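Please decode residue identities from the backbone states below.
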């Protein structure tokens, strides 16, 4: 395995631009985006705020046990399960966070980048929200969504359509 080389932001932008310069219509692009919760802030609270809300809710029902691990994802998963042990309740909580919230500027900018299809046409996200889909719809852009294991065959890196893969599904 080779040595990992770090470069500054300006050099990275130049190299990405060079790699994308040769992309022709409907040709496979050299990259894909992985976007997380930060792209949906401030419309959806960041994880630390959600953990606080979930913990407070769980404690109302007498859940006092702490998460088994120290990683932030452990706290999020633990308190989410404690506050909403039933799937339908977890969906309701997510819906209350997401539905009818304003699309963030970051999602609109990402949609705009995707429209050109020169950097990429594929986005992978752990986010539950539909802000990127709504952004693309505002631009009148058809796209493919995979938000369930049974829809994974929709994603085809050879295809020119804009594709969004929600690794944990949508709300």
């Amino acid at each position: 395995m080779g040595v990992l080389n770090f470069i500054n932001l300006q050099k990275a932008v130049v190299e990405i631009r060079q790699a994308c310069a040769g992309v022709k219509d409907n040709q496979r692009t050299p990259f894909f985006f992985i976007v997380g919760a930060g792209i949906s802030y401030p419309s959806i609270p960041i994880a630390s705020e959600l953990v606080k809300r979930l913990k407070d809710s769980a404690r109302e029902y007498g859940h006092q046990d702490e998460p088994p691990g120290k990683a932030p994802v452990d706290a999020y998963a633990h308190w989410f399960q404690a506050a909403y042990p039933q799937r339908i309740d977890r969906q309701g909580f997510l819906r209350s966070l997401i539905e009818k919230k304003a699309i963030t500027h970051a999602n609109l900018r990402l949609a705009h980048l995707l429209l050109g299809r020169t950097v990429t046409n594929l986005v992978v996200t752990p986010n539950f929200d539909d802000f990127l889909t709504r952004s693309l719809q505002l631009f009148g852009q058809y796209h493919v969504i995979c938000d369930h294991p049974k829809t994974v065959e929709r994603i085809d890196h050879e295809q020119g359509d804009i594709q969004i893969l929600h690794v944990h599904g949508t709300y």
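Observation: The radius of gyration is 19 Å.
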